[in-house]
Design goal:
Shape: globular
Strand order of the largest sheet: 9-8-7-10-12-11
Distance between the termini: 34 Å
Number of strands: 24
Largest sheet: 6 strands, mixed
Structural class: alpha/beta
Strand content: 15-25%
Oligomer: single chain
Number of helices: 12
Helix content: 25-40%
Length: 533
Amino acid sequence: MSNEVNYMQQRITINLNTDSKTTDKTTILEYCRSHGIAGIETPCGGKGTCGKCKVTVAKPYYKDVLACQTKICDGMEIIVGRKESTGTKEDSMVVLTNGENVSEKFNEHVNRNVEDTLAACDIGTTTVVCYLIDKETGQIISTRSGANPQRSFGADVLSRIDAAARADDNDKANGGLQMMQTQIVSLLNCFISEMLTECGRTKVSRFSVAGNTVMCHLLMGISPEKLGKAPFMPDEYFGRVFNPLDIGLENCQAMIIFPAVSGFVGGDITAGMMETVNCNELTLYLDIGTNGEMALGKGDRYVCCATAAGPAFEGAQIELGMPASKGAVDKVWLEGRRIKYSVIGNDRPVGLCGSGLIDALAVLLKAGIIDENGTILSGQELPILFRAYVFEVEAEETAQSTESSLAVHIAPGVYITQEDIRKLQLAKGAIAAGIEVLFKEYGCMPCNIDVLTFAGGFGNYIDKASAAAIGLFPQELLDKAKEVGNAAGNGAVSAALSKEAWERALEISGNMRYIELASYPHFNEMYVEHMNF
């Protein structure tokens, strides 16, 4: 099951005389952040390098501008959101919300001594999903999902760590940490209130939260600043009960937050593994989203690591990258001498989402358009059948490139540049090198693996054969690969319902050994080697 996240178009008029939060030195992005206005994508965190925070200024002039680089003025009228939005589901970002009830392995251990309304939540860097659960039946009776409003501070956790560290000492309420906490708490309050009203309930007795370590710090208003520098040790590992009222979370009596293993392997991984990993099968667990987290093991022994893959696989920082929403090329394949594609919503192609990017790389490699180093070929080196697909992009046409570069047509108006390919190589090289480290540390080979598990939205939609073809994971694991959907969200549901599930999560986190790749011997060499195809 999947829900969609709508970015509704909004028209805002700025009045500096009545607005104490802003001055004429405030940028449009800062204004929207401080006023809770969503819909502005800033993968670079507002540094002006990604070119994706465009909004329309309607007055005093009519122009598309970068929100992070444009100062507001009195009377300015801005339009935020998709100009082509029709209000239909096809205009929305796809959010994975699969899961109907508690996992069968925990059904016998459902708690019977608590009030009959429970809730669970998966707070992702990109999206947030909440579930309302009937305690007596174990059924999910309502679901809400949406984009994480903190995305205006950057697409990845490092951008948000940086934003949290830049709190304004003279205006704590508008500091990065306080603003991001307010944003996520407000969203959760909205979701919970809507679900309770929809189902005729009044309160939640137990609220279970899964999220990466940074997201959980921001939720609790704890600075994640230490996670931005060595030795990357968090201030809080969670794995206990919290009072929701302490952070302004309403209609909830108690809140549990899944235990983190390290600064970059969080409770979302613990929750997902608790829900999906069979203790008797050697499992490689991959959660490749905005962050790249992975674990390997079985029984009472696990190793894990996190890679600096960055947000490229989700379309951020890619010239024509975009979320999985209407107009995104989501599949690419070869059909004879032609590159074929499909588009979400069967609409005009606008850009490439993560699954389309992985497919595109595999197709370019298979067609001989790029070589094993990821370089786009030209002239006589390029197969004659595909020469028409390669062209040169001028510097002014790209938001990120400083010189002319080759690019490859994927669909009308949609292409992938040499710089895009390099960024994707960096991301896939980090993941593949991380997997190699886990094999070394656990003392096993790919042939020993029983199950390769892909968790999360990205893992659910990518073509596994394409991922193996580009070297994201060892080719011999392709037949053992399976997707488990929103494992973290399902794990959160199980823990809300079952004391045994919660205790199993605590046990897994206690049996997990974290490997810091930044200081791992020869990791850089492994990383560079895995960048090639």
